[in-house]
Structures are given as C-alpha cells and as structure tokens.
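Reopening this ticket.

The earlier resolution said the output was attached, but the attachment link was broken on my side. Pasting everything inline this time so it's all in one place.
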Amino acid sequence: MVRPALALYATACVGCQILLGIATDVPVLADASPDASVDAAEATIPEAAAPIDARPDAPLDGTGAIPILLAEGQLAVFNIAVDAVNVYWTINSLVLGAVMQCPKDCNLRPTLLASSQAVPFGVASDSKNVYWTNYRGSVMACPAVGCPDAGPTFLATAQYTASGIAVGATGVYWAMQFGGIMECDLGGCGMHPRSISDSPGSYVAVDSTSIYATFTYGNIFTCPLAGCDGGAGLLPSGGSPLGVAVYGGNVYWTEPTSGTVRECSAQKCTLPTDTNTIASGQDTPSGIAVDSTGVYWTNNSADAGSVMRCTDCQGKPTPLASGMRNPYGIALDATAVYWTNQGDGTVMKLFK
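Inline output:
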C-alpha cells in the first residue's frame, strides 16, 4: 500500500545527495538489502496552509502558461516518470533514498511509494508497475497502486552503478555506468537478468527493436533488443551525451558539455553528417523527452535553469519555463510536461 510521505524529506541532509550517480561522501555498499522496508517510520504530512498552484516567482513560459508546483521539500530529487494516473520521482540519496508518488493534481501532497532505498536513480512506469534502479546495486518494482506491506520486489541484485531505466513492450531495461546493459522480463526474471551488451551506460531508451544508451564519459550506442554479440554500434556524438529518447524512428540526446541537443535517424546514424543539431548554446542540457508535440529538455543551470521545447525549430527552441533551479529529470504525457528541480527540491508541471 502507499503510505504518507515522511516529513523528514523536508529536513536538511548535508552531503547525502548523489548527483549523476557519483557518490562523493558515502562508502560503497556490497548490495541493496533484500529486507528493505517500504517505509522507515509512520508519519503524516502537516496540514498545508493553503493550496499553492504555482511558484510565486515562476515566470510565464513561451505560451503564457504558468508552471504548477506539484511537490516541494524533495531534497535530492532526481529523475521522474509519468503514467496514465501518477507522477513518480526518485530521491537520490543513500540516507533518505526513496521513490515518491503523486497524482497528476496532487496539490503538494505526494506519498511515499518506497523508502530505505540505496540511492534510487532512474524510474519508469507502464501504468501497471513502477520500476526503478538503486545505484548501489539493485533493480526494484512495485505495483503502481502501491507497494505491498512486504516491500518492493527485487528484480535483480549485484547491479552496481545501475542508472537509467526504461520499459518496453516485454521487458525492463537498465544501464550500469561501470557494467553493461541488462534486461528483465516484465513478469520477472528470477533475479537473473539477461545481459544485452557489455558496454557501460548512463541512460537508456527503447523502441520495438533496439535499445539506445548514453555513456556520460564516452558516446551513445545502439544494440538490438536480442543482444549485441559483436558489441554495440556507436552513434556519432559531438560531446559527452547524457539524456536519450527515441520517437518516430529518430534518436534524440543531450550533450551537457557542448550545450547541444541532437537527433539522428535510428536507421542511419553512423557518421557525424548523419546527425542534426536541434539546438546549440544551451546551458547544460540534461533530461530529454519527445512526443508528437516536440522535443523537450531541461537546462540544468542553478542561476538560469529552463525547460525548453523545439517543434521544427531549426535551432530556435522555445523556453517553456525559465528561472528554474537546476531542472533535471523530465517526462511527458498527452497534455503536460513534468520535471524535477534539483536546486530547490521541487517537482513541477506545465500544460503544453
């Protein structure tokens, strides 16, 4: 079942945040504990003084809409996912590691889906179940309606540096920054995931035939879902890629160091001339999501963070929200865009 969010997530946690999966002040754990409980303690959120529809200082976006504040006090907030009913995000901390859940109109009252997690990183949902990676060694799942009293299900352990995760038609896929690309059937894999590629990865995206992965310290590569016996095929990238998405036969990715967002045909992407620059001069582009309405990404800047959209923009993207504090994870549904702000611990929503 889903339990009320703990008030301690609004408490300062100096040094507990693990950004981009790099631990700087905590020891490496041998494994995620199989007996991790759903919550560490029972607590309820104090009564909200008044509903807050939007951050008072949130500027208008390019269409005149105002970002809606879904949750605040989410220290170490990281990646985000959305399904038909709920929004989910990870609290990327060893001490307060958790996965949070919130209806799309939750009005500052998120609930705790799972706590006592070892540095939750990526999160994904297929509306039936929620899946996430724990950077310190495990891949987990819970029903979207809430984890049972016994706690979340372990799909796999010994998955050290497990990072980005994606759900396909038949399986769950994840990357390990110092490992490879793995897969587990939606029905479970008996704690024995299948190796797709030995290539390390940071974030992943899947379509009906292939998986696409970025490696922050290297390149972007693709591999058939059946596996890469001969190794993964590299795609051209002008800088260290981070976020990745696939839609309509094209692959999209962000390059924080070069400030560039790029796309390439999934069928023909072997030479630098095969790529198309969607936007350049961006301030640390990070998370990315794509649908029929355009390409969306976050610019992870502390002073000038923004959420951007490009629809046949030819290098001229539209700012949807500016003045954000380190926006990072991003997700889409049919009507809205959702993102996390690492700098102030908030989760936001904006109607398209």
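Reporter confirms the inline version is readable. Confidence is low (pLDDT under 50) at residues 1-57. The chain has one domain: 52-351.
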